[in-house]
Structure formats: structure tokens, C-alpha cells
Amino acid sequence: MRKQAALYLLLTLALSLSARAGSTREDDIHRIQDSAQIFHEIMGTPDKAIPQDLLESAQCIAIIPSEMKFAFVVGGNYGKGLVTCRGVKSWSAPVFLTVSGGSLGFQIGGSSTDLILVFRGRRGLQKLLSDKFKIGGDASAAAGPVGRSAAAGTDVTLHAEILTYSRSRGVFAGISLSGAVVQPDDTGNAALYGRPANTEDILSGKTAIPPDAMVLVEAVSKATRTPAPASVPQQTGKAL
Q1: What is the value of pTM for the model shown?
Q2: Which residue has the higher pLDDT, 85 or 175?
Q3: Per-domain residue ranges of the chain
């Protein structure tokens, strides 16, 4: 039991250090393109995608491409992605974030998983502006329904602040991410926007959308039936 606890602590430390690992502009662009492609593919099959009424009422949408999961007695996960939020007229420029967590359990194996988080209210946005928060702890969460309508949603789903989804081996479904920690990827934001990169300004729409990020904003805008904004050329920060 002590060995398991020690291994869990080592895993938690490793995940924490990974979350602070550096990011370059090339990494950012690749992550943006992957996120846009994943969202486009998932929403391309309406019968197995996020219900349209949930998308049209969503306040923020986060996409974490190919989150790496691994397990050997102690399970863990770690991934980097982006989030964009709904503004007065259009969706915002994206902010980079990380998702990490660990869980004790007798399991061996690993998989690559795409994640999507649908934030349903402005309180979720406030969580995104904090240093970090825990899904299911600081913010209520539930596995999201899939299909053309959210009518089948339970009370838990309807009152959850965040709806969580995953796609693994081509299968898209709601998933429980309780215990996972979400926090800003400061190095990613600095690499794309330059220093200082203000998360609140970006998600509130005060920061112009970099041309390289437009492919993601357009994908989210199309899926939520929202007019896509025009990109505004701007000077970006140098890779760190």
C-alpha cells in the first residue's frame, strides 16, 4: 500500500512538472490544427456528436487533442489543449490549457484520447480565469449526452457546470473526468500572443484572433451556428 502511495505521489509530481513544460509557437500551431480537425470530425457525425442545443447554449468549449493516458497500478492522464469562449458577437481567440490527473487502481495499459469540455455557464468562465481548478470538485461536471437532442439528459447532466466527452479508438461518448485538474498553459499563451498574455482579455474577446488560430474559431463557430469573426493580423510573440 505504501509503494502504491509513493508511486502515486511520484506520478502527481511528474504530471505537475509536465504541465509547466515549455511550449513553442510551432507546438501551438500544431495543437490548434489538431484541435480544429478533431472538433470537425466529431461534429461531422450528428447522430454521435454533441447535441446541437447544448452547443448553441455553451459559453466555452475546450478541446484537448490526444490526451495521453497511462497506467500501471497507478493510473494517470495528461494533455494540452485550447479553449475558446462565446463573446457578444463571436467566439474568442483561444487560450491554451492543460488537463492532468491521477487515480489509484489496478490497471495496466495506455491509450490516446481526445477530450472535449463544454462549459455551460459564465461561472465556468470564471473557473478558467483562475490559476487552476478541479473538475468535479471546484466545478460540477457530468458525462455529456450524445446525439441530436439533449432531451435525454438527466438531472445531473442538466445542472452540471461542465459536460465532458472523449473520443478513443474512434468512439465518441460522455466520460467522467472527476478529479482532473485544469490550468492555463502560460508558455503556450506567451508563445502565441507574446508576454504578457492576459487570459481574461483573450477569452473576453479583447484580443484579436491570430490568423493561425482562425481555423479553430471557425470550426467552433460553424458547429454552434455562430458568425465567424474576421482575423486581424497582429505581431505575435517569439517562441520560448
Answers
A1: 0.81
A2: 85
A3: 23-69+81-95+110-178+190-223
